[in-house]
Amino acid sequence: MNVVVVGAGPTGLWLAGEVRLGGAEVVVLEAKEQRDANSKALTVHPRTLEVFDCRGVVEPFLAEGVRIPDGHFGGLPDRMDFAALDTPYPFTLALPQARTEELLEERVRGLGATVLRGCEVTGLTDDGVALADGRVIAADYVVGCDGTRSTVRAAAGIDFPGTDATTWGWLGDVVLDAPPERGFASVTGAAGGLMVVPLPGGVHRIVGGDARTNVAEWPGELTLDELRATVGEIAGTDFGMRDPRWLSRFGNATRQAAAYRRGRVLLAGDAAHMHFPTGGVGMNVGIQDAHNLGWKLAAVVTGRADEALLDTYHDERHPVGADLLAHTRAQTALITGYSAELRALRTVVSGLIAVAPDMARILAERLSGLDVDYGTGRRAPDRDGLFTRLRAGRSVRTAAGLVRPDGHLAWDQSGVPTKTATSVVSS
Length: 427
Fold this sequence. Notes:
The protein is α+β, with helices and mostly antiparallel strands.
């Protein structure tokens, strides 16, 4: 087998599709027998929608997702208008992760990749991965897309430095008898902050935090009674919540893999970076990791590029991950700012977003993933049908220069080739 991808979440599935599109053989191994019905991620950002468009699979997402034309920074009341963004998709989509995974798995199976469930990877061997049932699956390359507790990362001996949790958020997927008027709500005050988001099937997600859980110690499992009382204290109503489908807590532990590649082992998504889930960026950055890596991995294993091309994956995506961690830490400080001083900071920053269009646009570009620039390999916008032309997963020539399969320029504006330029021509 050319490539084994460990983990069938959005990152692993998108990576497998990209590798297969590039002509390599790939198998996805997932420990769970069934897909998790509880969706950690809900938000699909503009750049991810562009990525889907570049492969011709965006339409089902657009048909099923709820379009949200603006976004928040740190839960601030003044929101960023995505209409100012240079993209065909100036909005985010609210779509449960479980459905995103279903759509991505349909795509990857249609491309001829294999997805095997109930296959727990316990470690690495000299030529592949070891499974809990004693089998060994050989592979030229192994990619760990197996989450923050990645078995692959640990087996490869890759450090995961960072900080432990100092605060905890909570969420409940519940039925609301008295939902907010427009389905959505955002409330912040001295007691805490929360957002209400509608989900399919008559369910709403209430997500937030409060001063009592602004501590390092694990607060214990969340109960419906606790959620109802906390939401009532923050919002003045519990929205008539009942029939919980999922209750959970999450912390702000923040870590990043020291290396995204070690020999024939690579990491992507949550296996490479973990953080507080503010802004719904985690799944999106993982898919964009995979979009950067997939064409490179396929080009190497099919002999169209030298192995050194894989080093550019770390060079390009590790800084994006570091920026992600800085961004989410800053937002976490604003979200959990329950003191009078931090509430004042929230008011000042929120006011700047309201009156400074450039600031709001820059934050929106950063949140949405549209500002990513790999040194000189900046993202190419959709001009003259570029996204359609990229659907074969190969590089294309445009008036702006040669565009890589992942939609980034291979030459900078002054005509200087990037590190990937030679490999792009052969791919």
